[in-house]
Amino acid sequence: MDIASSSPAEAAVPERLSEQARENVFAPHRERILYPVAGTLTVALLPLAVHHLLRERFDVGGLLLLLVAMLGADAIAIARGKRPVVPFALLLLPGAASVLLWLPSHPMYAAMWSYPLAMFAYFVLPRRLANAAGVSLLGMIATLMAMHEEPGTTLRFAASLGFCLLVVNIILNVVDTLHARLLALSIVDPLTGAFNRRHMDAMLAEAAERGRRSGATASIVMLDIDRFKSINDRMGHATGDQVLRELSRVVRERARRLDSLFRMGGEEFLLLLPDTSSADATKVAEWLRRHISAHCRAGEERVTVSLGVAERRADEDVDAWLRRADSALYRAKGSGRDQVIAA
What we know:
Layout: H1 9-24, H2 30-54, H3 58-79, H4 92-105, H5 107-124, H6 127-148, H7 151-187, H8 197-214, E1 218-225, H9 228-235, H10 237-254, E2 260-265, E3 268-274, H11 278-295, E4 297-298, E5 301-302, E6 305-311, H12 318-334, E7 340-342
Parallel strand pairs: 6-7
Antiparallel strand pairs: 1-3, 1-6, 2-3, 4-5
């Protein structure tokens, strides 16, 4: 099995999280955001909808009434601890339709309502789509305003809405970066750059669930540095820490992008290999054993590792899976160390 090099975990983790954040950093918090927004908009838009209906503007009044009903349904569902009835992206449709109806005859009304509509798009759409919607809205309204309003008014509208979109993106870039860094700090071991035990539990549970749903295979390789206590006792903890960092770097640089290295604690690590059989995982473990022995040093001494391999069995829970890998590792250490044993 070929092991392609990949970027280190401390660089890859923020990168992956940043990609998710750029899609929509608000996605996990939409319900919390929507509840007060829905209540406020319901109070603000209901009188406006009634006003248009009484003045026989049934198109705009009906759309606003539909938006109020959709927001109210979602707010009630969230208050009851249930999933929102209306998908968040659909909440944009009545508002966008109202603005488009106003455009030909009342471009200034459309201009005023384009600001909250553009802002709301960033809460319910991926960032790229929200930007596209905002720019499209700006272009359509500015074009129609140019036909009916003086050039200065059109220019001021275009500049103000464009500036709002720019500021929102600047703020979101900062939020995205901080969000990604915070998440990375919560799942990465600060000494070695490998993922921590908390993230390991989540990833193994995910691999087990994926196996139950689709039958996908996965293997784990448990690594333990041989005689690590002796290294600390004879050479000091600074040397021991350097050995841990070097081992983590070597493994991560030689692992595939989809593989994940975790520090379980002390000198023990675990490598998760998705879509990998026991036979292929054993080849990976043997390659790592040789490579670590060749490239990791404690002072002038060669560092060796013992490794236990276990492929997840059907209907096996994570604890049983880990126990088999740990048992294989224990046998490898008991049989002379510096070797690989598969469960």
